[in-house]
Amino acid sequence: QVTLRESGPALVKPTQTLTLTCTFSGFSLSTSGMCVSWIRQPPGKALEWLALIDWDDDKYYSTSLKTRLTISKDTSKNQVVLTMTNMDPVDTATYYCARTQLGFPHFDYWGQGTLVTVSS
Amino acid sequence: EIVLTQSPGTLSLSPGERATLSCRASQSVSSSYLAWYQQKPGQAPRLLIYGASSRATGIPDRFSGSGSGTDFTLTISRLEPEDFAVYYCQQYGSAGFTFGPGTKVDIK
User: Fold this and answer.
1) Mean of the pLDDT values across residues A92-102?
2) The pLDDT of residue B94
3) Contact B47 A106 (CB under 8 A)
4) With bands split at pLDDT 50, 70 and 90, how would you rate the model's confidence at A103?
5) Any chain A CB within 8 A of the CB of B96?
6) Distance from CA of residue B103 to its chain's centroid?
7) DSSP state string for chain B
8) Is A47–B50 a contact, with Cβ atoms under 8 angstroms apart?
């Protein structure tokens, strides 16, 4: 059974750095072809893909946010971490992690999401 | 970056009716790389269709996907009460993943 769960602060101040953790089970990021992405959704708005890390530790980022994002993994802990620097109120959103697999570029399993509010 | 446009923005229908949702891409998309999701309030998106026309595990056969190139369609043959939700299309390309703005299917 594949599950993913996001964790991190619910509130961050403008200019701070956000760190989110995705803890998953039911698959391993050391298995060839496995990937985990971060996706966000501002309240009432559409989904936006942020970053992906694959089993081989290759990393891919949204062009528009690339300079602010870092994705990493800890295979032994079944965790993927996303950091986003210089947070702004427009970054207020629900942040999801989700699984994809090489050759199947869609998100088949999602976490429940974590709402992050950026406010002073 | 490929931009996805979905229409209509809102579709007001009654249970039992047929729903036809459109997703149009700014450039040609490989059919293998087009997916559809359903999202209900307060929930994460759920994968419905991948590869433009393949149903995900556990998805009822009233959901079907079609299309190629720049025009794709999600059809719900007979709306059930639990189908009223927002639907997103998603594509994968050289610049990564992009989602459409969504179509809300609400009860007429």
Assistant:
1) 97
2) 85
3) yes
4) confident
5) yes
6) 8
7) ---EEEE-SEEEE-TTS-EEEEEEEEEEE-GGGEEEEEE-TTS--EEEEETTTEEPTT--TTEEEEEEEEEEEEEESS--GGG-SEEEEEEEETTEEEE---EEEEE-
8) no
Burial class (CB in 10 A: 0-12, 13-18, 19+), A113: buried
Instruction: Please state the three-class secondary structure of chain A as a single string.
Output: CCEEEEECCCEECCCCCEEEEEEEECCCCCCCCEEEEEEEECCCCCCEEEEEEECCCCEEECCCCHHHEEEEEEHHHCEEEEEECCCCHHHCEEEEEEEEECCEEEEEEECCCEEEEECC
Q: B97 in contact with A at a CB cutoff of 8 Å?
A: yes
The CA distance from A6 to B74, in Å, is 30
CB < 8 Å to B88, chain A: 46-47
| Interface contact B56-A47, CB threshold 8 A | no
Q: What is the pLDDT of residues A1-60, one digit of tens each?
A: 999 999 999 999 999 999 999 999 999 999 999 999 999 999 999 999 999 999 999 999
Rounded to the nearest angstrom, the minimum Cα separation between B59 and chain A is 12
